[in-house]
Write a structure and sequence with these properties.
single chain; alpha/beta; D-Maltodextrin-Binding Protein, domain 2; 2 domains; 10 helices; 10 strands
Length: 233
């Protein structure tokens, strides 16, 4: 049986899992991780599911806090990630240097992978709005490869199931066989902050706070950067 339960968005999975494992070894605490899209986890929490530590986008943590589901004084920003554009390793890199060039790259691609917005992923919801903004939603949706989350987007591109993909850089870097060719250009640039907090009904709030302290140890900042997550602490 686990000592701590962590509900976490996938964008920060690599660091939450890595630093959590180190905390487990150092403390003897066993952690049960649930990684999913931020939106789906928010819904589960609002419907009554409890956890010890919750890691979601900054805005969703704020929404849970307004509903009285976050322990006072525990909200802590972890890292900021940015949306990138990916292709399979060895494939030609399209020009994405300007919004107009990126729009053309989306139109030229045979298939485009991104997170299904219905899955509740922050990146997918943002990208659907971006397609509407660019006026190419219908064209891209016809060739979309919809995925459950950012890691699935990365794996779809690496496996050749999609020619072009867009997801948070932090969800692309752990996947072999693809290249991050850049971030969204110009005024399309998108950054999201991920935040942790202790659930108000945590069964082990002190251990949850200790894990949160381990996640935000200043000595780990270079590792957050290497994972594509600019540390926010």
């Amino acid at each position: 049986m686990s000592d701590l339960k962590v509900l976490s968005a996938g964008a920060v999975k690599s660091m939450v899992a890595a630093l959590g494992a180190e905390y487990e070894r150092a403390s003897g605490t066993k952690i049960d991780y649930v990684f999913n899209t931020a939106g789906s986890l928010r819904q589960r929490i609002e419907e009554g599911e409890t956890s010890d530590l919750v890691v979601l986008s900054e805005s969703l943590i704020a929404a849970l806090d307004k509903r009285g589901l976050i322990a006072p004084g525990t909200i802590t920003d972890l890292g900021r990630t940015v949306t990138g554009v990916i292709v399979r390793e060895g494939a030609p890199a399209p020009d994405i240097s300007t919004p107009a060039a990126f729009k053309q790259a989306l139109l030229d691609a045979r298939s485009v992978a991104y997170t299904d917005p219905k899955a509740g992923g922050s990146g997918g919801i943002m990208f659907v709005g971006l397609l509407d903004r660019l006026g190419i939603a219908d064209e891209v949706n016809k060739k979309a490869v919809l995925c459950k989350g950012g890691f699935d987007v990365s794996e779809a591109v690496a496996a050749g199931r999609a020619e072009l993909g867009t997801t948070f850089v932090s969800e692309a870097l752990p996947v072999k066989g693809l290249n991050v060719i850049g971030t969204l250009p110009g005024d399309l640039h998108y950054t999201n902050t991920y935040t942790a907090a202790v659930h108000v009904r945590s069964a082990a709030p002190d251990r949850a706070k200790a894990l949160l302290k381990a996640l935000t140890d200043p000595a780990t900042r270079p590792r957050w950067d290497a994972a594509g997550l600019e540390p926010a602490f």
